[in-house]
Amino acid sequence: MSEIPGAISVGLRRVVVTGMAGAGKSTFSRALSAITGLPIIVLDVHFWKPGWTEPTEEEWREQQRGLLASDDWIADGNYHATLDLRLERADTVVFLDTPWWICAWRALVRGIRTRPVGFELPKGCDESRWRRLRDEWCLVWRIWQDRRSEREKELGILSQHGRHVAVYLLRSKRAVRQFLDT
């Protein structure tokens, strides 16, 4: 596992971008896509069924198998129960190891801000301003609760299922910029 970003290799084709909620996965994925031309699979968009209903684990695993079948992608999301599927096909993992308090702050602010242009909601899922505020601010509580266990859980899955992939652990904005600049 590399904590110092290396050059983005020629073989970079299937990238898993993961980290705690609010770590900056979507922002990083968009920037990496702009540099590499790889399409982004936003897992949150595909996870939710109409009316914000969760799929069964088998439905979600099957859907991801289809999403990950192509040869080139960036998978943006942190669903631990199915990380093994993404790691099977990945050649690179970028783990955004952002401090929990920054993640919590970003979720708090995200509840207030207007969604960015091009933001896509899952099909059949509406979002009122009140729902968004409630969901993001509840996320702040979850981030605080899971601040210690989340990282260990993620690293455990990576060490068990990701031995064949290049893993980059990015702990700061500077590390992210260095990775994207190389």
Describe the fold and architecture.
There is one protein chain. By secondary structure, the protein is α/β, with parallel strands linked by helices. The protein has a single domain (14-181), classed as Rossmann fold. The chain is built from eight helices and five strands, in the order βαβααβαβαααβα. The protein has a five-stranded parallel β-sheet with strand order 2-3-1-4-5, sandwiched between helices. α5 packs antiparallel against α6 (129-145).
Features:
single chain, 182 residues, Rossmann fold, five-stranded parallel sheet, 8 helices, 13% strand, globular
Instruction: Please give the order of strands in the largest beta sheet.
Output: 2-3-1-4-5
Question: What is the number of helical segments per DSSP (H or I, 4+ residues)?
Answer: 8
Largest sheet: 5 strands, parallel
Topology order in helix (H) and strand (E) letters = EHEHHEHEHHHEH
How is the CATH topology named?
Answer: Rossmann fold
- The end-to-end span amounts to 17 Å
The total of beta strands comes to 5
Question: Which regions contain 5 or more consecutive residues with pLDDT less than 50?
Answer: 3-10
Shape: globular
CATH superfamily: P-loop containing nucleotide triphosphate hydrolases
Query: What is the percent of helical residues?
Result: 40-55%
Taken as a percent bin, the fraction of beta residues is 5-15%
What is the CATH architecture descriptor?
3-Layer(aba) Sandwich
Structural class: alpha/beta
- The CATH class turns out to be Alpha Beta
On the 0 to 100 scale, the average pLDDT is: 89
